[in-house]
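Researcher: Next entry in the queue.
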Amino acid sequence: MTPDWFERGFPHIWLPYTQMKTTPAPLAAARTQGSRITLADGRELVDGIGSWWTAVHGYNHPHIVEAIQKQAHIMPHVMLGGLLHEQAATLAARLAALLPGDLTRVFFSDSGSVAVEVAMKMATQYWLNRAIRGRTKFLAFKGGYHGDTIATMAVCDPEEGMHSLFTGLLPEHHVIDLPRDERSIATFDAFLEKHADELAGVLVEPLVQGAGGMIFHDEQTLRRLRAAADKYDLLLIFDEIFTGFGRTGTMFACEAAEVVPDIITLGKGLTGGTLPLAATVASRKIFDAFWSDDPSHALMHGPTYMGNALACAAANASLDLFENEPRLRQAADIGEFLGKKLGQCLGLPHVVDVRSRGAIGVVELDSIADLHALKRRFVEAGVWVRPFRNIVYLTPALTIGEGDLEKLTDTVVKILR
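Model: Structure for this entry, 417 residues:
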């Protein structure tokens, strides 16, 4: 039976990434716990994607819930313009201590897209503040995804991504193949020889390009980008909205490559999947270009809910859990399990590739004829898995139990078979 609130509200809801006329109605979610979503009709689904990769500790973790409740009684929010509160200050200091190198200045926002826009704005103004004109373009890579706002759409893959409709509206940047093999490395080198002096920065999702198709690359690719950025005096930006907070096996993907970017963006898992919060963290070199007696050298950006106290309290509680519970070991164990279990899909008709890294498991198909039908079959089997394009993937909570993880992998194998 459909709840009254659903009947009243659904006619007024506009859903994300959805053709509202033809897409089946969403499911009515009633509550969550651990790695499970309970629907209003009583059905329970094992969540295989961690609510768009955010719920790294599972749902309703008591330590995060308690921190939010406590902060709500003290101060839910106060503007960060001219004021600073304990939760934001503590979180900034903790992130600076966790991140490698001198990534020490934290600018808070409320979504991953905005965090990347802020990074692009920082990189562009870095050159302007140094009286260097003409560096207004960015180099991004095919298969990449960096958000849905105007500036970030312009650095997503223009052909494989979802934003090709907006060609003409978007600023024009450069999008080429990641330098991963002899051909693409040669193309990358030739491109920089010709265009480096017009670039404000190089933008990449380290190790895994998420929404662009769960495309993996290795640590050497990131080292190559760092070397090129140093050679041509470019700024290197790592978009770790997806890859940060244990998802690829280390706390941050940049650690695996021992590469320190000039700017890093964080989000999704930052609050453990509870409240919207993102961060753009800059190196000392970047911040120093804004440190001036000239008011025009300030970074003129300020989201209204920047550094929201409730969200920062949740993020601090999430970091407590990373400190005190074995999340990275759990991510490694999940990766090993996913690789072994999903490997059973190799050799099935239409399966092109199976890959895993950290708590990410991917089955790539040559195509998916009917996404809605496939999603419906997963729900009927008791799991929440959301394939896109030609990809079936799992990014569960790092705390998921072995029984629930096995149900996810067994269901994927059974349905694809």
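Model: The chain has two domains: 4-57+325-416, 64-324.
Researcher: Noted, moving on.
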